[in-house]
Amino acid sequence: MRSRLTTPTLATPPLQLRLAASELRRGAVVACPTEAVWGLSCDPLNERAVSHLLALKQRPVEKGVILIAADIEQLFYFFEVPSRTALRRARDTWPGPATWVFPASPFAPPWITGAHDSVAVRVTAHPVMAALCRRFGGALVSTSANRSGQPPCRSVTDVRLRFAPTLRVVPGATGGLASPTPIREAATGHLLRR
């Protein structure tokens, strides 16, 4: 079930990761390379940061957002495990470019889940994103860098042109996937997004 992912080298200097993590803790939105496209990330527990990210994307809060982490322990706060089978399905693809939808925990904020009683999560194998989550100390929002209805950014230049030139960009390369990660329902394995 694992998808092919070109493993980029961790070309991001430690100082850049430290600065990005510091900005994330202060409520900033940063642009980061992900498995397929450039993404926007912020602290999922900071409502103002998530609101700012959604405003940049012109995305309604009702849609919810994906959370990304360096390991599953960073995600347990946000979701509940419906069965051992469901958890095994996800673990069999992680770390890797696979997003799974789990029932939301009572602690998952409504600005993350949107109009759903579930939350979409991924343990990434992308070295830059994993390193940023570790440096930050937890899961991050990870959503494609684009305005609603537009194609996602595929380069740093795209990010700079479409968003504020002052937006911090974490240096690195995308993972080489042709399209965003598939999304599946953990309880059933049902494919929600190819």
Question: What key phrases describe this protein's structure?
Answer:
9-stranded mixed beta sheet; 194 residues; globular; DHBP synthase; 6 helices; alpha/beta
Please explain how this structure is put together.
The chain is an alpha/beta fold and about 190 residues long. It has a single domain, classed as Alpha-Beta Complex (DHBP synthase). A 9-stranded mixed beta sheet has the order 7-1-2-6-3-5-4-8-9. Strand 8 and strand 9 form a beta hairpin. The longest helix is centred in the first third of the chain and has 12 residues.
Write the layout of secondary structure elements.
Elements: H1 14-25, E1 30-33, E2 38-42, H2 47-57, E3 66-69, H3 84-91, E4 99-103, H4 110-113, E5 118-123, H5 127-136, E6 140-144, H6 156-162, E7 168-169, E8 183-185, E9 191-193
Parallel strand pairs: 1-7, 3-5, 4-8
Antiparallel strand pairs: 1-2, 2-6, 3-6, 4-5, 8-9
Helix pairs in contact: 1-5
